[in-house]
């Protein structure tokens, strides 16, 4: 049975539709609560510093190339 036919069958029956939407909603709520716990914490400050260093390096490289011409 294809996914689309399964969705159509679930959508035709109000009881199945309610149960399916309830399970999906519950899954989304659990995911929203669990995501901050399980996702790795990002250190924004160090990422910003690293990006700034990369930008400084690129700027210096571009300046050196333009001076060489």
Give a short overview.
The chain has 69 residues and is mainly α. The chain has 3 helices and no strands.
Structure commentary:
This protein is mostly helical and 69 residues long. It has one domain. It is 87% helix and 0% strand. It has 3 helices and no strands. It starts with a helix and ends with a helix. The mean pLDDT is 87. Keywords: Membrane, Transmembrane, Transmembrane helix.
The description of the largest β-sheet is: none
* Mean pLDDT over all positions: 87
Spatial gap, N to C terminus: 66 Å
Strand content: under 5%
What best-fitting shape do the alpha-carbon axes yield? elongated
Question: What string gives the helices and strands in order?
Answer: HHH
Total individual domains: 1
Helix content: over 70%
Transmembrane segments: 20-39
Keywords: Membrane, Transmembrane, Transmembrane helix
Walk me through the topology.
Blueprint: H1 3-12, H2 14-38, H3 44-68
Any descriptors?
69 residues, mainly alpha, 3 helices, membrane, transmembrane, transmembrane helix
